[in-house]
Each structure stands twice: as structure tokens, then as C-alpha cells.
Design a protein that fits this description.
Elements lengths: L4 H9 L9 H11 L2 E6 L2 E10 L4 E9 L8 H15 L4 E4 L1 E2 L5 E2 L4
Helix pairs in contact: 1-2
Length: 111
């Protein structure tokens, strides 16, 4: 469980086009109650994922973000591959991810 909730909040604050100002506190709360993974590089915290394990076989990715300057570099793919691998080893069969479109409708998908 990562201890750097402030670093995760800083990542989302650096992505105002994707996250609202209140998300930093929501992430800190989520990290206290749900499993989380982080990825670091020589510059420090590079990204994070927070998961709500709904059951032995199902989970929802609650939050995922990569530092603005590292977007498109493969860090997010590496992190998600690692998280999904860990979850599959632990019996996961379904992952749900919800995103907010510009129309403010929520979508979900199984992986």
C-alpha cells in the first residue's frame, strides 16, 4: 500500500483537464480503504492505480493516473499490466472501469 497520498494527489492536480479539484481528497480517502499500486522513476512518483476489490473474482479500477510529463511514455501501460497481473494471480476474472465522458455519462467495460 503506497504511503504517498500527497504525491498521488499532486499527479491529479497536474491533470486539470481530466480531474476536478476535489479528486485529490477522494484519492487520499480511497487509498486508506482500497488496495493501491504506484510506479516510480528516478524523478519520484510517476503514476498510481487504486482498485476496489468487489469480490474474489471482480474488481473496479477506481482511480488511475500518470504524471502529465510521462503520459504517452508507456508508464501507464506498464503499471496497469502489473496491477492486472497481480489481480489475476489472486483469482480476478472481471475488471470494471468507469470513465466520465464530456456528456457526463458513465461507461463501464469488462476486461
Amino acid at each position: 500500500m503506497p504511503a504517498d497520498t500527497g504525491g498521488c494527489a499532486a499527479i491529479v492536480l497536474g491533470l486539470p483537464e481530466y480531474f476536478t479539484d476535489d479528486v485529490g481528497e477522494k484519492i487520499a480517502t480511497s487509498m486508506r480503504t482500497h488496495p493501491a499500486w504506484v510506479v516510480t522513476n528516478s524523478g519520484g512518483l510517476a503514476g498510481f492505480v487504486i482498485v476496489d476489490r468487489r469480490s474474489v473474482r471482480a474488481a473496479e479500477i477506481l482511480w488511475v493516473a500518470v504524471a502529465a510529463e510521462l503520459r504517452g511514455s508507456g508508464v501507464g501501460t506498464l503499471l496497469l499490466d502489473h496491477v492486472l497481473g497481480d489481480l489475476v494471480k489472486d483469482g480476478l476474472q472481471l475488471v470494471e472501469v468507469k470513465t466520465l465522458r464530456s456528456s457526463r455519462q458513465t461507461d463501464g467495460c469488462g476486461v
